[in-house]
Amino acid sequence: MSKQEIVNRRDFLQKTAAAAIGAGSALRTVGTMAQPRGERPEIADDVTVLNPQNRVPMSFIIDDSTCLVNMAHFGIPHFATAWPERYKQDWRSLPREIPDSFVRKFGQWCREHGIKGKYSIVPYPACVGWLDRCLPGWSQKDLDDSLKLVRDLMLPDWDIHPEMISHTWVINTKTGRPYPEQTGYYI
């Protein structure tokens, strides 16, 4: 397959979104949107459906998170390399770290309010370092403490999921390093 035949992720998403919208429009025109409910038993007057703990269930999705590394600070330069016309903000003015104190405060607030959800972790955040090895710029103790915080505070109430490997450059699985070409095709 030549490079011209390969579709990048952004183009793929745009084309599939357009196709889905078109398919949805076609389905609406053939009368498939509202279907009759069919026969159902009568609802008894003495029966009430209650939400768990008499509250509306709520779930958060914390996406593109990781330990310590502020993905915006380290990731925006990568995106700006691939798409300079789109990423002009001053990433240097952003903090380089999302401190554990913030994660702790958020996690405690969620626990107090019974909020649960999905918490993703980027394992090689913006190619700064591997969470299972080391993060240059942070001590091993900082990294270990941050991972422990996620395990101890977040894990009981949150499903932890790995996110894209770096969330920026595509990683060559043979070398474990980013591909040298820094274009939108490799991000």
Description:
There is one protein chain. By secondary structure, this protein is an alpha/beta fold. The chain has a domain at 58-186. The protein is built from four helices and seven strands; from the N terminus they run H-E-E-H-E-H-E-H-E-E-E. It has helices at 9-29, 71-82, 100-112, 140-154, and strands at 59-62, 68-69, 97-98, 116-121, 158-162, 171-172, 177-178. A three-stranded parallel beta sheet has the order 1-4-5, with no helix packed on it. The mean pLDDT is 85.
Mind sketching the topology for me?
Layout: H1 9-29, E1 59-62, E2 68-69, H2 71-82, E3 97-98, H3 100-112, E4 116-121, H4 140-154, E5 158-162, E6 171-172, E7 177-178
Parallel strand pairs: 1-4, 4-5
Antiparallel strand pairs: 2-3, 6-7
Helix pairs in contact: 3-4
Oligomer: single chain
Instruction: Order the strands across the largest sheet as they lie in space.
Output: 1-4-5
Distance between the termini: 19 Å
As a whole number of angstroms, the C-alpha radius of gyration is 23 Å
Number of helices: 4
What characteristics describe this protein?
two-stranded antiparallel ribbon, flat, alpha/beta, single chain, 4 helices, 187 residues
